[in-house]
Amino acid sequence: MTEPTAPAERSAIGLLGDTPSRNYSGKLSRFNSFAEPELRRLISRVGLTPGMRVLDAGCGGGQALPWLLDEVMPSGKVIGIDLAAAHVQAARLRAPASIPILQGDIMNAPLAPASFDFIWSVNTINHLRDPVGGAKRLATLLGGGGRIAVGQSALLPDMYFAWDSRLERVTNEAVRHYYLTRYRLGERDLASVRAIVGVLRRAGLRNVSTRTIAIERVSPVDEATESYLVEAIFGGTWRERLRLYMADDDYAELMRLCDPCSADYALKRPDFHFLQTFTLAIGEI
């Protein structure tokens, strides 16, 4: 357990513990590499055209920045912003030199009003203590007819173990209990994860539309998928974090399935079938 955080200090920290010094760029990079085919298809279909001005709000390690730039070249412009200094450093190493990348809080972004035509923001709004306020702030950065695209992965529970729904269920419940305890949250504090349509509408966005896709993989999986699942999920999200929230037998079985050296390793099973949803909600000012 972490030490309690003073109210004033807590208010300056993101809902899920984000601060300028926090660094989970490796997890972000693995997710984007894993989901690149699907994310790039979504970007190609949101109506970007050459000459548009685009902001990636919560750009992480910057993987999406060149994908966005491809859609608005040669005369368009893309800018990235992220709270974490380490993420910004990683993005600057990855992105073309023509893309400015700022370190800062999107709630107080040093950007001029009405300076963008389109804002792309993935897995970011749900990290804010005031997601509606965040969407309103982003809306002020759009010019007439501008649009915000808010992406959120896993609005539906992910399917990891197609052959064992019970173990999958108790694992997902343990993850939820971990987050509630780790960040001292109530169940309703996580509502914005699944409420992006409501967030955009409450922020005054019009003509809100959605599209949900399935990111689907079966064995044998590609290298990017294995890296994402083993390092970001099996290791970074599960492992020791879940020990206190699962029965001993369930935890032991889960660890065998997550271990590449185990005969029970999930990704080597012929019936391995993984599904993760990704939802994009788009609203206009």
Per-chain topology:
Layout: H1 7-11, H2 25-44, E1 53-57, H3 64-72, E2 77-82, H4 85-94, E3 101-103, E4 116-122, H5 131-139, E5 142-153, H6 165-182, H7 196-202, E6 206-218, H8 223-238, H9 248-258, E7 273-284
Parallel strand pairs: 1-2, 1-4, 2-3, 4-5
Antiparallel strand pairs: 5-7, 6-7
Helix pairs in contact: 2-3, 2-8
Describe this structure in words.
The chain contains nine helices and seven strands; from the N terminus they run H-H-E-H-E-H-E-E-H-E-H-H-E-H-H-E. The protein has a single domain, classed as Rossmann fold, CATH 3.40.50.150. With 285 residues, it is α/β, with parallel strands linked by helices. The N and C termini lie far apart (43 Å). It has a seven-stranded mixed beta sheet, with helices on both faces. The N terminus is likely disordered. The longest helix has 20 residues. Helix 2 packs across helix 8.
Characterize the overall form. globular
Number of strands: 7
SSE pattern, N- to C-terminal? HHEHEHEEHEHHEHHE
Q: CATH class, please?
A: Alpha Beta
Main sheet attributes: strand count, strand direction, barrel closure: 7 strands, mixed
Number of domains: 1
In terms of structural class, how would the helical and strand content be classed?
A: alpha/beta
CATH hierarchy: architecture: 3-Layer(aba) Sandwich
Per CATH, the superfamily is: Vaccinia Virus protein VP39
Mean pLDDT across residues: 93
**Low-confidence sequence ranges:** 1-11
